UniProtKB/TrEMBL annotation:
This is Beta-galactosidase. It catalyses: Hydrolysis of terminal non-reducing beta-D-galactose residues in beta-D-galactosides. Substrate binds at residues 119, 157, 331. The lineage of its organism: Bacteria, Bacillati, Bacillota, Clostridia, Eubacteriales. GO terms for molecular function: beta-galactosidase activity; metal ion binding. It holds the Pfam family Glyco_hydro_42. The keyword Metal-binding applies. One of its GO terms (cellular component) is beta-galactosidase complex. Residues 413-635 form the Beta-galactosidase trimerisation domain. Belongs to the glycosyl hydrolase 42 family. Gene3D superfamilies: 3.40.50.880, Glycosidases, Golgi alpha-mannosidase II. It comes from Clostridium beijerinckii. Residues 646-704 form the Beta-galactosidase C-terminal domain. Its EC number is 3.2.1.23. It is an enzyme of class 3 (hydrolase).
């Protein structure tokens, strides 16, 4: 990747505000297209994303191109100082293509071929589909390469899913041959095929996982998911070939999925690998604000966690929020309106975590089809006098006032490891407890709340206004003071060496139960868990007990050297039965036949320390324990004073300034103590110090 492409296009030094604009649906309504431009300016929008699903409007019949409408939109945008992020249309294709070339249609894991319809319904391997997407992208690049409106490419839309057609089966076998050096014995060993007589004697016997066939060989499932990642990236690389050649200076992004399905990380692909191939990371954020199953504050923590994943994907480079809704999301179970104030607050939350845009799905509600009731900036009433329109305009105003923050970064001394392959493997493992059992195609997934466990650890830092990166296990640990690796079940090659080195050099590691269990093929480590982490943690984990929902145990810290912690904390779900080898025991279990066995340990290793939390702890323990580490390690909080529950503070900075976002994710007014530092409120211009009051869903952006 060119270095100069690694930041947003140099043409852009403003926060982008606007979003998905689908004029292709409105070509019979020229007066509406004209009105759109007036309204965009009123709403303080400076950017649109177009052509995402425009293929049948630019190529209604094979080889018959009708770009004129797109030319007009591009020209109208530039005439009104509105930037364009231009999409390649591969997310959905015209019906003529599926009819003429059925190989482009996706085959599901039950081996049924899809009919034409919906979207994201194509085979990633099909040479025809690759040729067609290459050709249309080349035409787009040639036509708009010098267009002043064009600032970025939006490649396809939310790449996801998998295809099981014959072409993909062949590609999978070839991928495996390459991975296993053409040696079937190596594959048989990695997949442990002695199990249930699954030994393979010919590559042709290999099929992708299916509910009708193989689904219990975990190494096989993992390799399939890795193949799907690689094949999706390969398809994308083919899409960008003409774009890179014709417009080498226009950055490229693709919109990753945030939390659906399961952060887009489960089925689909490993976004860490994909991120290497894009210039700018972008994602689509659709939280269910104001739901009745979690507090606003808890949901906000989860959203922050996902923002921090996307920021960390490219080492902290600012990312884009490519889609979010200004109002309701029409596909949630209950389509709740965003309450007044939440739109500004959630937008600022994105910025606080490193986003350089607030872009919406979508600009204007369509008249028909499944998204006609999805929140949009312009409603069916077609005018500016709506609550949502006013709130969007306000966000646009605020972004202008905050312009100097654009491009600044967020630094962290703490990292939480949340690893996609580890997630795949944990979800597939048949053990522990069946929590949130779900079906996903051929998979029956026993989720063990891995993501939630990582988020709960993360929350302790959010509460204190401490910035944390969310990284995978291949990232560089050396820049952090503290690395927290909950449930690090899979440990890929060299990871343990890197962890050891990190701790030896003075770093602090926290890991937990269900860590160091399998290698990269999901084969259990022999010789005692936590496998390659045994030396650094100084413990041996012999067995894990699972607890029923109504069962609890306790970690007793009586007489331990950890001051500031309570004497006892409740633990649930999992209790790892461990033996301290070189580690010091800080806490023991209270109950059951393993009473008095270690439940919390620390091992001095080189200049650093490795903590092992043997059981699933609750919020009280996490807050106290991580607060202690924050203090001991001198980790910086954004604000000196203690933050009230539900309020966080996050900071971005550049060489000249520090920008602090204080956000109240509760329904009550809160007082926040700022200490002696004097800040300027960037929205009101007022000088602030000592104590501030924040309304329900209030947000303040302070400059030190
Ligand atoms: C996204 C998708 C958009 C739109 C939106 C609705 O996942 O990229 O095209 O469908 O959801 O929430």
């Amino acid at each position: 990747m060119n270095k100069e492409l690694s930041v947003l296009n140099s043409k852009i030094n403003v926060f982008l505000h606007g979003g998905d604009y689908n004029p292709d649906q409105w070509l019979n309504y020229p007066e509406i297209l004209k009105e759109d431009v007036r309204l965009m300016k009123l709403a303080n929008c400076n950017c649109v994303t177009i052509n995402i699903f425009g293929w049948s409007a630019i190529e209604p019949e094979e080889g018959n191109y009708t770009f004129e409408w797109l030319d007009k939109i591009m020209n109208d945008m530039v005439a009104n100082n509105i930037h364009v992020i231009l999409a390649t249309p591969s997310g959905a294709r015209p019906a003529w293509m599926s009819e003429k070339y059925p190989e482009v249609l996706r085959v599901s894991s039950d081996r049924g071929k899809n009919l034409h319809g919906q979207r994201h319904n194509h085979c990633f391997t099909s040479p025809v589909y690759r040729k067609k997407t290459y050709e249309i992208n080349k035409l787009l690049a040639e036509r708009y390469k010098d267009h002043p409106a064009l600032i970025m490419w939006h490649i396809s839309n939310e790449y996801s899913g998998e295809c099981h057609c014959e072409l993909c089966q062949e590609a999978f076998r070839n991928w495996l041959k390459k991975k296993y050096d053409n040696n079937l014995d190596k594959l048989n060993e990695a997949w442990w095929t002695g199990f249930w007589s699954h030994k393979l004697t010919n590559w042709s016997q290999i099929e992708s996982p299916s509910e009708k066939g193989e689904k219990f060989v975990h190494g096989h499932n993992l390799d399939w998911q890795r193949f799907v990642t690689d094949q999706t990236i390969d398809f994308y690389k083919n899409e960008i070939l003409p774009i890179r050649t014709i417009t080498p200076n226009i950055p490229v992004t693709t919109n990753f999925m945030g939390s659906y399905p399961h952060m887009g990380l489960y089925i689909g692909f490993d976004c860490w690998k994909f991120a290497e191939e894009v210039d700018v990371v972008s994602w689509d954020s659709y939280p269910a604000w104001h739901n009745n199953f979690e507090s606003t504050y808890d949901l906000a923590v989860n959203v922050s966690f996902v923002h921090d994943i996307y920021r960390s994907l490219k080492g902290g480079q600012p990312f884009l929020i490519m889609e979010n809704t200004p109002s309701l999301v029409n596909w949630q179970d209950v389509n709740k309106l965003k309450r007044p104030g939440m739109h500004l607050l959630s937008s600022m939350q994105g910025l606080a975590h490193g986003a350089d845009s607030i872009l919406y799905f979508q600009w204007r509600k369509g008249r028909g089809a499944s998204e006609k009731f999805h929140g949009a900036v312009v409603d069916h009433s077609g005018q500016e006098n709506t609550r949502v329109f006013r709130e969007v305009s306000e966000v646009g105003e605020v972004l202008k006032k905050l312009q100097e923050i654009q491009g600044s970064i967020k630094e962290s001394e703490v990292a939480i490891i949340y690893d996609v392959e580890n997630r795949w493997a944990i979800d597939d493992a048949q053990c522990l407890k069946k929590e949130n059992k779900e079906h996903e195609g051929y998979r029956q997934v026993d989720r063990k709340r891995y993501e939630e466990t990582c988020q709960k650890a993360y929350k302790a830092f959010w509460n204190r206004g401490v910035s944390a990166d969310v990284i995978n296990m291949d990232c560089d640990f050396s820049k952090y003071k503290l690395v927290v690796a909950p449930m690090l079940y899979m440990v890929r090659p060299k990871v343990a060496d890197r962890i050891n080195e990190f701790v030896k050099q003075g770093g602090t590691l926290v890991t937990t139960y269900f860590s160091g269990i399998v290698d990269e093929n999901d084969l259990c480590f022999l010789g005692g868990f936590p496998g390659p982490l045994r030396e650094v943690t100084g413990i041996w984990a012999e067995e894990i007990d699972s607890l029923y929902e109504n069962e609890v145990n306790y970690i007793e810290l009586k007489g331990s050297k950890i001051d500031s912690l309570k004497e006892s904390y409740e633990v649930k779900d999992y209790c790892d039965l461990i033996h301290a080898e070189t580690a010091e025991v800080l806490g023991v279990y209270k109950n059951d036949f393993y009473a008095n066995m270690p439940a919390l340990t620390v091992n001095n290793y080189g200049k650093g320390k490795a903590y092992y939390i043997a059981a699933r702890t609750g919020e009280d323990f996490n807050n106290d324990f991580y607060s202690k580490l924050i203090d001991d390690l001198n980790i910086k909080s954004v604000i000196d004073g203690k933050l009230p529950k539900g309020v966080t503070a996050q900071m971005r900075s550049n060489k000249d300034n520090k920008y602090i976002f204080v956000m109240n994710f509760t329904e009550e007014e809160k007082k926040i103590s700022l200490g002696e530092t004097i800040y300027i409120d960037m929205l009101s211009g007022e000088a602030l110090s000592k104590e501030i009051h924040m309304d329900k869903y209030g947000v303040k952006i302070l400059k030190e």
